Hints:
By secondary structure, the chain is an alpha/beta fold. The protein has 2 domains: 480 residues, Rossmann fold; 124 residues, ANL, C-terminal domain (GMP Synthetase, Chain A, domain 3). Helices cover 33% and strands 22% of the residues. It has 21 helices and 31 strands. The strands form 8 sheets. Strands 12-11-8-6-7-14-15-24 form an 8-stranded mixed beta sheet, sandwiched between helices. It has a 7-stranded mixed beta sheet with strand order 5-4-17-16-18-19-20, with helices on both faces. A 5-stranded antiparallel beta sheet has the order 22-21-23-25-26, with no helix packed on it. 5'-O-[(S)-ethoxy(hydroxy)phosphoryl]adenosine binds next to helix 12, strand 20, strand 25 and strand 26.
Amino acid sequence: MSTTDETDTSPAPVTGRLEAELERLLAVESFDPPAGFTRRHPVENDVAAAAADPVTFWADKARELLNWDRPFTTVLNDANPPFYKWFEDGELNLSANCLDRHVAAGRGDRVAFHWAGEEGERRVITYAGLLDETQRLANGLRSLGVGKGDVVGIFLPMIPQVAAAMLACARIGAVHNVVFGGFAPSAVRERMEVSDAKVLITVDGARRKGRTAPVKAAVDAEMGDLKSLERILVVEAVGAAGLGGERAPMTPGRDVWYEELVAAADPVCPPEPMPAEAPLFILYSSGSTAKPKGILHTTAGYLLGVTYTYRTVFDIDPATDIYWCSADVGWITGHSYIIYGPLSNGATSVMYEGAPDYPDFDAWWKLIDEYKVTVFYTAPTAIRSCMKWGAEYPDRHDLSSLRLLGSVGEPINPKAWLWYQQVIGGGRCPVVDTWWQTETGAIMISPVPGVTSTKPGSATKPLPGFSPALLTEQGQPLSEGVGVLVVTQPWPSMLRTLYKDDDRFVETYFSRFGPTTYLVGDAARLDADGYFWIIGRIDDVINVSGHRLSTAEVESAIVAHEAVAESAVVAQADEQTGQAIVAFVTLTGGRVGDDAMVAELRDHVAARIGKLARPKRIIWADDLPKTRSGKIMRRLLRDVAEGRALGDVTTLRDPAVMAALASKVAEAD
Length: 669
Ligand code: WTA
């Protein structure tokens, strides 16, 4: 940004000037695409083609962007909505599209990942190298008994093996089920159990900010008696030294070292031609109940969605761009925009194992400078943290290589958007606020950089081929105003079902407005220019730092504690994390909660779900506000948590409960 002003005789401190500039820019409603930004991939034809006929548009893209072992002859089978099928009689292999085709074209030496560890380690993984490791691992998995359709769990930190693990599954037609490394082993167990995973690929230990967590030992404690899980494959990432002297415990006959398996395996594993609709992966996500939803994606449609949107939204030139997505591979963003989208396009990415604030607050900016990153994709919560730490950290580094910035995961507040655009992007980079979900597989609403004018806080408009729309509560189309977000046409990368739970799939997404209208679960506003502004969830899902959590899941973890009689969990607006978890808790036998119990309950939730699910605030409640039929009124609890005047309490069984709670919260604050 321009911080030098010739006429300024008494320069204010830089931060003061930045504040003033951001305040000024907050009044700017819309930003034209920066003049210096030139698109590499034109979209005009796509926009016209998709508007004319979305199905033909996707068929053309599928032929243009993917390599098929057997070309498809039917595009969309919509005979049995909402169970859509795309490119049904076609066959391809996803790992061949991500690896072999680039190597065959003479680009085997291109870097797939520049891997950076948090202690300064560096590794370079080329396309040829990744193909080699993927083939060996694929053969290794086969030797452990993994075949087509078998589920393989993956619980790994951000190490290069995670890419090989996912691709090796795809190569042999196995279905991966990646669990975010921040989840507790008991959550991993639940996900392995409900998906009948045959093999789990994990790690001896995981590093975070200079400390090492003994992952394998913790996994053993949870997974020991799980019958369906036949083998555990262990990457030795930290070794005996990292674990305080001894290598991770291994159970003979069940556990295998990853390195040994890969070294001994046959280096050639031809890619298995897979039917377009063969399951590719399951990714568990939170819904309205305590039971996580196993979102199922299939092969060709998913690959097409991520391949097309990656090049359109990030305008990648694989020969020159260095791309970095700071998400974790355990979320959909990592699946689609760290692994499959970039690799299918033959792009070069940075993969980083560490945190943004270790060893110092400039860890990310240092990497951008070192690798000359051109396209950076992160989350609003991270941007807000960086704002809090201050512009002095990015200012220490040369960020002039950046040409495009992306955001994902939650609504981005205009101030954070502007800070990102000004401080990180130097005012010259388009900012793409990308809206999508685990269920959509690929970005659906986003500016097209260089084309769409942006409004801070708005994800702007649908990408070609996607048809999000707003409806009133009654299901009437809305062209302006606030409504319920839906998608009116099937799209190739849509979820196909919830794993082994077709009924819940239909009930969750296709019951409110019928079998052809996908219910997103978000509320949004459409402005007079047709721009979408995402407001937030309409179900009992909390979005903490862009991570989806279910109130019911957190509640059931809390009530599993022996001292707890009852609990209700709500979201409270939070400047840092977007939303924060507030738990109202009633203890058994009239026990009174204290600070020690707060700590105990927070640890208890961390052990059952993961640290990310720990309540920020616990409010002791003698009783919870319930309707006469016994339903907890969360709306009132949100009012109390956020200090608002209480709404209508007349439907409560005992209105006095609310007054008691409100006075208690006021005291505590
Ligand atoms: C929210 C993450 C506003 C939204 C890719 C959605 C967003 C949920 C945005 C999906 C955005 C995601 N602006 N809200 N740009 N991106 N969301 O499945 O509520 O982890 O329904 O997928 O995050 O979260 P999920």
